[in-house]
Amino acid sequence: MAKRAKILGTGHYVPPHVVTNQDLEKRMDTTDEWIQQRTGIQERRWVEGEVGATDLAVIASEEAIRAAGLEAKDIDAIIFATLSPDLNFPGSGCLLNDRLGINGVPSLDIRNQCSAFPYGLEIADAFIRAGVYRHVLLVGSEVHSTGLDVSTAGRDVAVIFGDGAGAVVLGPSDVESEGVLTTIVGADGRFARELWTELPGSRCQPRISVQGIEEGRHFPKMNGREVFKHASRKMPELVREALNRCDLTTKDIDLLIPHQANLRISEMVQRALDLPDDRVFNNIMRYGNTTAASIPIALDECVRNGRLKAGDLLAVTAFGAGFTWGAALIRF
Fold first, then answer.
1. Whether pLDDT at 191 is above 80
2. Which secondary-structure segment (H or E) carries 182?
């Protein structure tokens, strides 16, 4: 009988450099009040110097491997989720396997932005259920700060994003009732240009040009209202669908971790599911939106501060660029 995947260990890392809203006030026409009112964010972490997504991922991954009671050599596969890879190619998963000293281990990069954790979880669970791999390292890592327009022109996006990495190690569960109960993922490419970065891209010739840079086409662009509208509707809808699949209700949820896109979205998701504050975890106030890293960072914090214990039902839900979306139910 196929064994579903369970989370064996978690880890995370954020850079030590804190960037407050007051710091951003000095670089653009914005205020702490404006940022908090619209996003709930008070501060975020940004890297300093030449630091890439893999540098953050190494630390988070080592923590997760230790927490799982394993060594790096026990990892059979890597799934690396990022929209900010160290290089255009090869993928950051290859760089990570070298940094962890496990050369030869298959390494897969996925590009599902804010929805990356549910996507990666579905892939890892399928690998483990099929018996292809026993221990899978799933890591989300982002360095947004070096790719933002930190000016008044780019403030709607620049104030939101932070840098960080989160990781989980998954392995087969010997108990049928625990582990990844279900995952849901989806996408709708009609909305691809509502949240996107155009350059560098293969349709542009040349891929990088002075004109393109002067026009700011290498910076992320977002239709905030459209993203907010779709995310606040889709994220609770996904949780309900996942619960229905498992013959569960919102009353069975011990903890919900929504993707940390915007505190106002998280609050709307919470209200839609009628969950009390003690059953929802948010940390966007401290870290901003770390896209692929947001759920695993929050998950590790919850594990380490006792918010999750054996037998608890965890729900995660996410929505992001693409548009893409995903959710999962996990029994700890």
1. yes
2. strand 179-187
Q: Which helix (H) or strand (E) holds 2?
A: none
The tokens 């759920």 sit on which residue? 295
Query: Which pLDDT belongs to residue 313?
Result: 99
Active-site entry in 114, 230, 282, 302: 114
- HSE (side-chain half, CA atoms, 13 Å) at 288: 26
pLDDT in tens, 111-145: 999 999 999 999 999 999 999 999 999 999 999 99
- Contact present, 140 and 113 (Cβ < 8 Å): no
Cα(124)–Cα(171) distance, integer angstroms: 9
With H, G, I as helix, E, B as strand and everything else as coil, classify residue 306. coil
The DSSP bridge pattern shows strands 324-331 and 179-187 to be antiparallel
pLDDT at residue 176 in the model? 85
The catalytic residue among 94, 259, 262, 282 is: 259
Residue 114 designated active-site: yes
283 tagged catalytic: no
Domains of the chain plus CATH, in order, are 5-172 (3.40.47.10), 179-331 (3.40.47.10)
Nearest to 183 by CA among 237, 132, 121, 128: 121
Q: What is the DSSP string of 276-298?
A: -GGGB---HHHH-B-GGGHHHHH
pTM of the predicted protein model:
0.97
> Which residues lie closer than 8 Å to 289 by C-beta, 6 or more apart?
41, 114, 160, 161, 162, 260, 261, 262
DSSP conformation class of 148: S
289 is catalytic: yes
Residue owning tokens 């799982």 = 68
| Tokens 């996006």, located at residue | 157
Instruction: Give the model confidence (pLDDT) of 139-150 as tens digits.
Output: 999 999 999 999
Strands 136-142 and 77-81: parallel
C-alpha 101, offset from chain centre = 25
- For the chain, the 3-state helix, strand and coil shares in percent, each to the nearest 5, are 40, 25, 35
